[in-house]
Amino acid sequence: MKRLFDILFSLLVLIVGLPFGLLIALCIIVDSRGKVVYRQNRVGRNNVDFQLYKFRTMCNEADKGSLITIGADDMRITKVGAFLRKYKIDEFPQFLNILKGEMSVVGPRPEVRKYVNMYTPEQMRVLSVRPGLTDYASIRYVNENELLAKSTNPEQTYIQEIMPDKLKLNLKYIDEQSIGVDCKIMWQTVMAIIR
Fold first, then answer.
1. Tell me, what's the pLDDT at 89?
2. pTM, two decimal places
3. What residues contact 62, with CB distance under 8 A and at least 6 apart?
């Protein structure tokens, strides 16, 4: 049932959003050099890597440095990229990941291998389900980049404080997942972005 919903919902969003997607692509091309869609290896269900798609929001090859971004103060983020990130529009191409079966609309956000390698055996349980476009952690940490910008050591803050809390929320989701919970998370995500 969930997979059917993912397919139908992502198809609808991609069809309706296509004109906006083309406009965003044009804005990215005009704003800075580089590809329109950024691909990054993330860890998916059953600990299998996949390529996650996003609209590019940073300067070309900006990911050669830190994997952590620190909001408006991060000089690697382009002008168009800052707007796309603020309203989570950069995540739009992930509906292709959902259509391919690599992701779900709701589920634990997929992490990069570097941080997955730090998980405890209990935390590894988040890899028992498809990763998602949104989850409880996305709602709580909708302004994560701004929180990290206030830290003297953003990566340490992420590893020691934010990541463990996110994983706790992800495990809570796994234990209580249902269509009703997914609908609630989707609604709360929309409201968090609007706020």
1. 94
2. 0.89
3. 76
